[in-house]
Structure formats: structure tokens, C-alpha cells
Amino acid sequence: MLRAKIHRGVLSAFWRLLVCLTTMAIPLSAFAETAVFKILTEDGSPIDDAVVEFVIPVDQQAGLVTPSRFNIDQVDKEFVPELTVLVAGSQVGFPNSDHILHHVYSFSEIREFNIPLYGTGENDDFVETFNVAGIAELGCNIHDWMLAYVYVAETSKVARTDAEGVARIEMEPGDYEVRIWHSRISRRQRNMLEAVRILETTGSEKEIVLNLTRDRRIRRAPSAGSTRYR
Amino acid sequence: MISCKCYLRPRLVIKSLLAAIVAVPSTAYPNAFSELSIAGGFEDNINRGLDEPNIIDSTFSALELSGGRFFQHGLRGKLTVFGSLGYDRFFESTGFDVFATSLGVAYDYRMGLGPYATTVSSSVAFENDELRGKGRDRQRSLVNLGLSKRFDYRFSANLGLEYLNSSAESLGATDINYPAGADLNNPSSFEVYDFEAVSASVGFNYQLDNEWLLSLDYNYSRGATVASTKTPGFLVYHLADAFYRDDALGFPYVAYQLETTTDEWSLSLNAPVGLDSSLDLRYSWQDIDGPQQFDYDNSSIRLTLIHRF
Q1: B3: which of B39, B64, B79, B194 fits an S-S bond (Cβ 3.0–4.6 Å)?
Q2: Whole-prediction pTM
Q3: Does the beta-carbon distance from B114 to A220 stay under 8 Å?
């Protein structure tokens, strides 16, 4: 009887240990839930091309930094895409699909660079590496209205909103802060952080209202030259 | 007024421009540009008449095709070769119809990268206007210096200085009703478009929320004006630096050159039409001051459709 009890106890402990080890081997993402963010204006309109990034402490970023390669093209005298979201360490190429020359530059603190005039097919192997998290603003020295942004995230826990203003990020349950950004975000909200709680099985859904400023772009349309009396 | 005969020599001009292009350092890269503009409007004193019986007004249309090529010089310099063809038609006074051509070269230096860097500009251009008859045909050589600065996405300003040398082909005596007392053995010059002028300008541009552009320009010019009258008196003949029949209006009109200063104001509103076109509405007013009571006013309103290729 005693031997049977000991046998059942050992078996029970064995199975518990086996389940425990198996659970530890399963990637954490298997327990991740979906955090859904809806970014709106004050009047309830969806905001596309807003960026939502989870703030992850440095000591927990291992495995979440996944740099990749991107392209920012120049098509019909505009940058395409206008917003690129990437993880620190990623590389960006600047192909020119226009029939004219462009001169790409950035004065941003996180990455200052300057690619003098080049045309189609030139500079195809050229890349800039964005190692520092933050925002880079790009321009063309020939066509003053051309503007693009590069959002450099610390980790891959970042997403941009779609046309419905929705961004989805897979994240483990817990309490976090998220950083919100848009190219026209008001000065007051510029460094805003929002608290978010992600629950097991239900994830989270959060609506965030942004105050957007006017589009401060230099106009592209031509103006008339002076017409002096002949 | 010192007059200067400086004839336009097309072959020399073209050779000089080609030499300038060849001389551009190998670090330069080309970009072509072109623009088409179609305009219509009204001008209330196209002949610079002094008083009501002599003032001619007219509606007009204008067509201009311009373009060129610019060569980037290093990071901040830009050499541009440009030219234009244009035709203006004055519906109530077709004598003023003009076929205009121009050719020029400009060098711009941007003191930094990006739209907010100050730009210093310089240019040399040659213009040729062909009208009915030889009396109003003219060639112009222009030298320009300019400074432009964009302060933010809305507001920009520019300053300019210009030297103009205007010239005409040699003309001879014609059938004019010379006023009584005129010394026909010592007539004044016939080339009414032989003169020099210098001018200074300032302009401001303000972009509204809907991307419409409001512009205000002022130009001060010290040089000469070519006016006309059908009743040339002795005083006009005495004061004028040149005197010739007005081929644009026909007998008995006489065109004459007076030393003048001109204040010109322009106000315009420019609305984008799509990405690369715009509609520009401009009102200009000139206040021309000559010797004694010879003061003239001229104003015009002009609607232009511009398309950049």
C-alpha cells in the first residue's frame, strides 16, 4: 500500500515536472494577446499613418530588436512611402524611379545624411543605417515640397495605423506604456505616453485622441513669374 | 539720358552659352524643366498716353513656353540655361502684338540645404521683341542679382536688382507731323527703345491654409519710358530723347522716349490646380513720373494658367 502511494506520488510529480518543462519551452508569443489601438481626431475621424510603440525596458528588449531592409523611392517628385516605420539597426535604400534627378538629405538628430544628385538606376546599392531610435525627416534639395518621415523604433513592438486608424500589436499580458506619434501631432502631445493594460485572452482595445496641427507643407504648384511691362 | 547701341548678336550669344555649358565642372548634373502659361487680361494704357484722347486700352491674351536645363554644381550651386517663346495679342490694338524670345543663363547659390536656406541668384538674359514695324522692335540685355529667403512653410521674401540695356535697330527719318518750332535739321534720335535702366524690387509671398499663394511685389525703376501721342507738341519734342512714328498705332501717332522713374505695384493670388498647375490672378499698377507734367498711369489685370511639366 505504501509502495503504491509512493509510486503514485512519484508519477504525479513526474507529470507535473514534464508539464512545467514543456510550458517553459513554448515561446512567450504563444501567450501574447492582441493590443488594438484606434487613433482618432477630436471629431472622431480615424487617423492613418500614426505610430504606436510599446515602451520596453532595455533589459527586456532581447529578441525584440529585428532590423530589416527598406526602400524609400522617389516617384513623380514625391517620396514613396511618406512614412517608414522600422526597428533600430535597419537599413534604408533610396532608389530614384523618376526621370529627373533628386538630392535627398536629412538634418535630423538621429541621422544626418546627404545624397547628392542622382538619377534612375544610380545609387541602387547605397543604404543608410538608422541605429538610433527617434524620428528622421527627409527632404529633397531640388524639390522643396518633398517630405518623408522615418520612425525608428527601439523594438519590433510597433505598428502604424491603417486607413481606419487602427494599429494591432501582439504583446504579452501586463501593464505597459505606449508611445504615440504622428507627423502632425500637436506640440502638447509630442512626447505623450499612454498607459495600457493587456489582459489574458481578451487583449486590449484602446481609443486615443490626437490633436493634429495643419499640414505645414510647402506647396508644389508653380507660381507665376513676374510679368513686367515690355 | 545716355543712349547706347548694343545690338543683339544671336550667334555670339549662342556660342557664349554653349561655352558656359561646356565649362561647367564635371561634378555638375543636369535636370530639364519646362513650363507653359496661357493668360488673358486687360491693360488700360498700353501705349502710355498722357491724357484721355491719347490713351489706348485693350484686352489681351498671352502664350508663353519656357524651359531649360539646370546643372547642379556641388551641393549648393546651380547653373541654369533657360529660354522662352511667347506671343502677346492685343485685341483692340493689334499693332502691339508682340512675338518675344529670350535666352539666358543663371547661377544660384543656396547657403545650406533645404527650403529654408537663403539663396543668392544672378542671371544674364537677352530678350527680343518683334512688333509690327521697326519702330517698336527692341532687344534687351538684362543683368539680375537677387536674394530670396523662405522663413517658414507659409512666408517667403525676395529682393532684386536689375540693370537693363534696351536697344533698337537704326531708324531713319519718317513721316511725322513735327510740331511747330522743331529743328528738323537737328532732329532728336529716332530709336525710342535705346535706353538704360536700373531697378530694385522686393516681393513677399504668403501661403494660405488652402495652399493658395498671396503675393505682393514692388519695383522701382529709373530709366526711360516709351509713350505715344497723336498730337505731338513742341514741349514733348523738346523733352524727348527720341522721337519716331508709332508703327503700332499708325499715323498720326508718334512714339517718344522720356527719362522717367516708375513705381510698380503688383498683387496676385495663385491657386493650385492639381499637382503641377496653378491659376494666377494678378493686378498691377504703374505710376510713371516724367519731366514736368508728363506723368503716366497704367494698370492691368491678368489671369494666367500655368502648367509645369
Answers
A1: B194
A2: 0.84
A3: no
Percent of chain A, pLDDT > 90?
Answer: 59
Look at residue A138 and give its three-state secondary structure. strand
Average pLDDT across chain A, whole number: 87
Contacts of B274 in chain A (CB under 8 A): 221
Helix (H), strand (E) counts: chain B: 2, 13
Q: Which residue of B has its CA nearest to A113?
A: B113
| B263 grid coordinates | 513705381
What is this model's ipTM? 0.81
C-alpha distances (whole Å) from B7 to each of A143, A171, B63, B133, B168 are: 38, 79, 26, 18, 8
Retrieve residue A230's grid coordinates: 515690355
A83-87 vs A113-118, strand pairing mode: unpaired
Residue B35 dihedral angles phi and psi, to the nearest 5°: -150, 140
Tally of residues, chain B:
309
Peptide bond before residue B232 is cis, with ω within 30 degrees of 0: no
The angle at the Cα of A147, spanning B78 to A165, to the nearest 5 degrees, equals 170
- Interatomic CA distance for residues B102 and B138, integer angstroms: 12
What distance in Å separates the CA atoms of residue A173 and residue A135, rounded to the nearest whole number?
28
C-alpha cell at B12: 555670339
In chain B, the largest separation of any two C-alpha atoms, in whole Å, equals: 66
Rounded alpha-carbon distances, angstroms, from residue B113 to A143, B27, B42, B301? 11, 17, 41, 37
Give chain A positions within 8 Å (CB) of B275: 76, 220-221
